[in-house]
Write a structure and sequence with these properties.
about 375 residues, mainly beta
Length: about 375
Amino acid sequence: MRLSRWWLLGLALVTLAGCERKLTPDQGHRVLQRVQQARRTLCLQGKLITYVRVPDQELRADGEMYRGPGVIRLKYTSGRFAGWQIIEQDGLVWRVGPDGRPSPSPIGPEAGLSLPAEGDLDVSYLGLTRVAGRWARRYVVYPRGGQLARLVVAVDAGTSYPLRMQRYGPAGRLVSETTYRDIRYNVAPPPKVAPPPVAEQHRPGDRLSRGTQKTEKELVKLLGGPLLKPSYIPRGLQLRGFYSRETRRGTLAEIRYSDGLRTLVVAQMKAPARRPGAQPNGRRAGSRDGRQPPPSAAPRPPGGAEGRRGGWWQRFGGGGGQGGANGSREASHGGRNMLHERRGDRVVIVSGDVGADEVRKVLDSVPYPAGQKPGTKF
């Protein structure tokens, strides 16, 4: 009889784990709020495994997480970046190398694993699972409309802390994952330290945290003319603000969109002087369709630092990527697609967690500056 009861219990759990039940908007919002609250307030230590897909390779590493209110410390214990730490403290972020020297870090310890608390999103319950020896409830977060991009999260049934987070890109492919192997709650919070001068401002949960928020008027003044705005934006994405960002070649003016899960950036800057052999319509010698050929891939050190070598996009401060049709690129982190083209005396770069065809539509909808057309000479 006892064996029969255990068999029935196991069958019930398997059945429950295999059911997907869509939550109401209020229910989904409350689930995400509880998870965000747990991430802000709990003190814990844990061992985890991280995974990220980059061009031509997959990177895996073990790590140790130590966190409390206002402080997150992640130390890699294996893999390519063993010995590195990324620290986030009271809105500042920096990294520390194996030699103990601090350096800037444009991303926080949980880059690519933000969990939205609001937005035009659908949340479904997937059932129970076991992670780090604890029962967890599984949820999937979709952009509204059923796109392949999604976030799957296993939430500790007792604390609401996310024990596993899996992000899938616009093609439905897994691009990053963090899974705890062991976790301890109710530990003493990590001690705070004096931030080094290289620490950078960081907005937790914002995958586009680099840059300085601006007004549209400030960007117009910076560019010396109106912003070139796209007339097409993928469904569900909403304007989130205007930003500027310094790169090796100058200042980028950025228009940022998001639905809480996916992000899209339309960036532009004054175009550099033309190279010998370049054609007036923006084509580089050897290109077929006026689109500059994609740069070569360049691995990035922890924290997203730019490679010293690589192509056009690296020189402007972007990430490495893999060439695709019409110059589209899948970036090193988060499965982002990217395209760039010259628009008269501007260079426009569109990148986002949307399909390459959508990125192309957005770029095609960006107008030329007033009075400038393809083929205009400067």
